[in-house]
Amino acid sequence: MPGAGTDSTRPWLEGGPVVVLVEPQLGENIGSAVRAMGNFGLSRLRLVNPREGWPNPKAVTFASGADRILENAEVFPDLRAALADLNFVAAATARERGMQKTVLGADAVATEAVARIAGGENVGLVFGRERTGLYTEEVSLADVILTLPVNPAFASLNLGMAVAVVAYEWFKLASGGALPFQQPDRYPIADKADLLAFFDHVEKELDEALFFRSPEKKPVTIRNIRNIFHRVGLTRQDIATLHGMVAALVEGRRTREERTAARLSGKPKEKPVDEAAGDGEG
Questions:
Q1: Which of 30, 126, 167, 200 is 20 to 30 A from 113 via CA?
Q2: Cα distance between residue 61 and residue 157, in whole Å
Q3: CB of 48 within 8 A of CB of 76?
Q4: Domain spans in the chain, listed from the N-terminal domain onward
């Protein structure tokens, strides 16, 4: 089922490098990898001899709505066949393989992929088995080794996670790092007249509340207060809210003062002591 972040009104992004999964063991992992592909604009999936066969219902469940990638997936009997029409291939591995081959991080592979795809080449990203990864002879078929800066003592990534990291670097570069949305600018920035009126308001009420206890320090304190609000970049809505806050605080203080005065004025007076009381005859 589609997740909370899906939006069927927007165009589905396609293209990018081909993702090749070599002998994936579980449909769940294929689905997770496909979900990551959909997240970051990769649409071409190739499966090499999937262990549980194909199609796989569990892959559909874990793809979380990226069904079109699964529907268009291609299945190959071996890696050589899956790579036949590709011009540049990066093989993902966490282990040093003892071969003279350039080793690149995901960001550098993304840079290479963007340039090559722009030039009309087909680029492939190859990921191995969940338990054993790619065999050395399979890595030898690639142009470069792709690896990630992970904890050397624990470099085992889930298949979906590995695809997600590399796909993210690709999409960040291919999209220019554009975020899908920004906070809408609903309210215009306050002009100086609005700001100065607020300063007059808050400084008057602070004065009445005896906030400025030292006449000598009052000018410096006022400048500091004004600078706090200058740094914020207040909108007109912000100014209106601040006016309301100050007014509420003032009203609350006056209400408390009135209640206190009323309580004190209504307090019963103490009766005068009758010095003769109790002195009469019993």
A1: 30
A2: 21
A3: yes
A4: 18-174, 192-263
**Alpha carbon of residue 29 to chain centroid:** 24
Tokens of 9: 């009104």
CA distance 251 to 179: 44
CA dist 74 and 76 (Å) reads: 7
CA distance 44 to 117: 14
CATH placement of domain 18-174: 3.40.1280.10
Q: Measure the CA–CA gap between 212 and 218, rounded to whole angstroms.
A: 6
Rounded distance between C-alpha atoms, residue 1 and residue 238, angstroms: 41
> Which residues neighbour 34 within 8 Å (Cβ) at sequence distance 6 or greater?
45, 59, 62, 63, 66, 69, 70, 73
Q: Which two tokens stand for residue 252?
A: 């609350």
- Asked whether 130 and 60 are in contact (CB, 8 A), the reply is no
Cβ–Cβ under 8 Å, residues 164 and 121: no
Residues of the chain with pLDDT under 70: 1-13, 180-185, 267-282
**Contact between residue 27 and residue 51 where contact means Cβ atoms under 8 Å apart:** no
Q: What confidence score (pLDDT) does residue 116 get? A: 97
